[in-house]
């Protein structure tokens, strides 16, 4: 399967807000392969000749060696963050395989709730039927391929806006209009095409892998094991659950590769003291720890005592969980926020922040507004950082860098996982 640079991820429609808050080594002599639109170097940091061919993904993968110990390892070559062919392969072997978060239980909490979205070129709809069963389908009418539903809300059935073909929330074709005289037609063969769907904690996930048998209803224990591995129990024990109330969503479009945002998240707090003055004053960065699991890394840090009697949004300890490939869960004080990094192109991504809060705090509008404003400040500082990194990755002065071994182990883990998934044919 091959996918071009036009492929993108689009998040599901925003959840109706509970509250209406304001928006506010390999050898240094190895050759590194990059698409010819970028300069490539055969030695670090500089080289003499240009890459010989475009889209040589195999060579790009070979330019990172996950077996080299972290203190000696080089980071992936810049082509991982700039080359369109590499970007296309990521959809085929990463985003179109395995479980992907697409929404939250809040969006399909009641019978007849639904929401829609897009994963690469896969249009999908997630819904809960009248009996409470959760379903996901390709959001494409079986008649002439019209997109069937849009947005989110409540429906008792899906009626195609093009020719009126109608489907139940279980996917069955209920009505095919004006087909008098049609031959060799069995409406049971023209239901919506199903997708694997599951929930874990507050999250809704789908799996669009064409090689995975359609089970539709996958238990939370199964998806938890597949998606989170041994970290699932740790996350559950640390307040990643359905007890929190959904508050609001923020979206950021960033001029950088999606992995740049993930790398920034995974540097073990390295950049916090330099880039986030307000945040660093509220954290005890010398308490920073990182734990590595199969597909998850968990960073944690104690908070500094608040200087006033005002409620501190960070609480006594912050936990930052990265779930491969692109989902981040932040649990601190009465808050949980999640970050979903959605690729829009080799050098562009959208990051979706969703905020959840302890129900006891829902009426404290001043606290909520102040907390969201503080979070927004940190995000805009990260946007500036990530866009600057992308410009550097696209310059002729850079190919690969080095890891800080004592703090960037989660970033190295992410790169090794990504390498393994991309090599898996």
From TrEMBL:
This protein's pathway: Amine and polyamine biosynthesis; betaine biosynthesis via choline pathway; betaine aldehyde from choline (monooxygenase route): step 1/1
Domain Rieske: 99-206
One Pfam family in the UniProt entry: Rieske
Any one GO molecular function term: choline monooxygenase activity
InterPro entries: Rieske_2Fe-2S, Rieske_2Fe-2S_sf, Ring_hydroxy_dOase_asu_C_dom, Rng_hydr_dOase-A
UniProt keywords, alphabetically: 2Fe-2S, Iron, Iron-sulfur, Metal-binding, Oxidoreductase, Transit peptide
GO cellular component: chloroplast stroma
EC class (word): oxidoreductase
UniProt xrefs under CDD domains: RHO_alpha_C_CMO-like
Catalytic function, reaction form: choline + 2 reduced [2Fe-2S]-[ferredoxin] + O2 + 2 H(+) = betaine aldehyde hydrate + 2 oxidized [2Fe-2S]-[ferredoxin] + H2O
Cofactor: Fe cation; [2Fe-2S] cluster
PROSITE patterns assigned to the protein according to its UniProt record, in alphabetical order: RIESKE (PS51296)
EC number(s) stated in the UniProt entry for this protein: 1.14.15.7
Function noted in UniProt: Catalyzes the first step of the osmoprotectant glycine betaine synthesis.
Protein family according to the UniProt entry: Belongs to the choline monooxygenase family.
Official protein name in the record: Choline monooxygenase, chloroplastic
């Amino acid at each position: 399967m091959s996918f071009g640079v036009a492929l993108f991820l689009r998040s599901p429609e925003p959840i109706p807000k509970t509250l209406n808050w304001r928006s506010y080594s390999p050898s240094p002599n190895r050759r590194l392969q990059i698409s010819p639109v970028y300069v490539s170097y055969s030695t670090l940091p500089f080289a003499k000749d240009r890459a010989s061919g475009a889209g040589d993904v195999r060579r790009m993968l070979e330019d990172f060696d996950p077996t080299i110990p972290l203190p000696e390892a080089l980071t992936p070559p810049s082509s991982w963050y700039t080359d369109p062919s590499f970007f296309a392969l990521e959809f085929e072997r990463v985003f179109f395989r395995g479980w992907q978060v697409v929404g939250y239980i809040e969006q399909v909490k009641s019978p007849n709730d639904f929401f829609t979205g897009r994963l690469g070129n896969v249009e999908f709809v997630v819904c809960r039927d009248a009996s409470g069963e959760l379903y996901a389908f390709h959001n494409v009418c079986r008649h002439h391929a019209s997109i069937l539903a849009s947005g989110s809300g409540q429906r008792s059935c899906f009626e195609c806006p093009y020719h009126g073909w109608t489907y139940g929330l279980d996917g069955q074709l209920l009505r095919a209009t004006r087909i008098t005289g049609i031959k060799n037609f069995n409406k049971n063969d023209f239901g919506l095409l199903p997708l694997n769907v599951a929930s874990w904690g507050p999250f809704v996930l789908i799996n669009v892998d064409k090689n995975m048998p359609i089970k539709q209803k996958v238990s939370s224990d199964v998806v938890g094991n597949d998606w989170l591995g041994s970290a699932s129990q740790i996350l559950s024990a640390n307040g990643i659950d359905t007890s929190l109330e959904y508050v609001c969503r923020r979206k950021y479009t960033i001029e950088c590769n999606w992995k740049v945002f993930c790398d920034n998240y995974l540097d073990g707090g390295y950049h916090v003291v330099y880039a986030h003055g307000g945040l660093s004053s509220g954290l005890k960065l010398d308490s920073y720890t990182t734990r590595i699991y199969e597909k998850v890394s968990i960073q944690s840090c104690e908070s500094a005592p608040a200087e006033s009697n005002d409620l501190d949004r960070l609480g006594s300890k912050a936990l930052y969980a990265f779930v491969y490939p692109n989902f981040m869960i932040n649990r601190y004080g009465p808050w949980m926020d999640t970050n979903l990094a959605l690729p829009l192109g080799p050098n562009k991504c959208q990051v979706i922040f969703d905020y959840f809060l302890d129900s006891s705090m829902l009426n404290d509008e001043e606290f909520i507004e102040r907390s969201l404003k503080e979070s927004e400040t940190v995000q805009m500082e990260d946007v500036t950082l990530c866009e600057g990194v992308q410009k550097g990755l696209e310059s002729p002065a850079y190919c690969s860098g080095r890891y800080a071994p004592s703090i960037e182990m989660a970033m190295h883990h992410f790169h090794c996982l990504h390498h393994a998934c991309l090599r898996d044919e």
